[in-house]
Amino acid sequence: MIDKDQIQLHAAEIFEQVVGYRQHIHAHPELSFKEFETSAFIKGKLTEWGIPFSEMANTGVVGLITGAFPSEQVVALRADMDALPILEANDKPYASKNPGVMHACGHDVHSSSLLGTAFILNSLKDEFGGTVKLIFQPAEEVLPGGASIMIKEGVLENPKPQAIIGQHVMPLIASGKVGFRSGIYMASTDELYVTVYGKGGHGAQPHQNIDPVLITSHIIIALQQIVSRNADPRTPSVLSFGKVQANGATNIIPNEVKLEGTFRTLNEDWRKEAKRLMKKMAEGIAESMGGSCEFRIVNGYPFLINEPRLTESSRACAEEYLGKDNVIDLDIWMAAEDFAYYSQVTDACFYRLGTGNIEKDTTYSVHTPRFDIDEDALKTSTGLMAYIALKQLGN
What we know:
This protein has ten helices and 16 strands. By secondary structure, it is α/β, with parallel strands linked by helices.
């Protein structure tokens, strides 16, 4: 019978190796769908350990570890691999060697942790039954999301997992702790691209123009009413515009204005209705003011739901492995994750790995140039995921 002490011992023994994996991947970040070196590094390690694998979604890697005892139980473990187009501001030996590209969301942690977990499970395969599917996924950061592509290519088939587990770094949580939430956890996300057309001209002669800047201003303010006056107050919704482009000047009214934003919520019916209302309102305002509006919506990730029974049992595993004081409750998070696609297809649990440490200056948010982790978190990440996987397999 495999116990937590055995797993913890393995995690401690390979800790320095996993730190090395993380620093290597961090120093060589690659953008979404271009994770060729990262994929090759992962395949090299799996080959070294004798773990069979296949390739999916161009750069994705799917490994299989089958225990010695007969069992039809299958659990999938997922890590993402891509980096972000951010110039790193950390002065560390392992800082990005690819200027303008950085692992600012912790995917280097996820991939190196899953490698460590794979090493542990492979070392113990003669002592458990069932199959662990290792999913190293590309392109979490950009639509349509690597998860959606891998699902289409059959990552959840042959063998079909009864559950999938994922973890994600969280600098707001102290290193050594993890967080769980049952039920709906993360938001859907859609991208909004709006072009408002008017008639440009001299800023001193507004009566001769149709001002798309003014029209856009009305649209931005009015669209917030969709959230404040049409959404059920019990359903979290966020509408944010982060880019407004009007190529005029102090005395030049442009012909058009471009507007880009995001809409996020936790209800699929409301998501669909809100997008219909936004398009109708924007087009109506533009027309009423003499202009016109092209309102394009790019559908993004669905909301992420943590299956309650799986999540509660995974949380219980974490409490056994780390102690109850090191397992916390998570609130709803309005960010989005393409792990949500897996959660729409099979039982899923997506939990948070604490990486913050004030003394080590690792509390900067993800998606920022100063993001980094307390690498002691890698002791938690590798062993805990292995322990959860074995528990889910019934070992």
